[in-house]
Design a protein that fits this description.
alpha+beta, DUF1540 domain-containing protein, 14% strand, single chain, 73 residues, DUF1540
């Protein structure tokens, strides 16, 4: 599988790198509706655990999605 380059403009995230690159090894992106169900403390749970809890979260447009990989610097 080809390596995916992820761009991110959230420069206060732990994984943010120069020129707006994301250096996270794995990334969880979910719908805004699902993201709103979890408090900030839930963001520190493992990605696998969140995927199991959240399940599938369809969205009809990109504006309805959110990255749950964020960790404040």
């Amino acid at each position: 599988m080809a390596q995916v380059q992820v761009r991110c403009t959230v420069d206060n995230c732990y994984f943010w790198a120069q020129d707006n690159h994301c250096n996270a090894e794995s990334i969880l992106i979910t719908s805004d509706a699902a993201a709103q169900q979890y408090s900030q403390s839930d963001d520190n749970r493992s990605v696998d655990m969140l995927v199991d809890v959240i399940g599938e979260t369809p969205a009809s447009q990109c504006q309805e999605t959110a990255c749950k990989t964020f960790q404040r610097r």
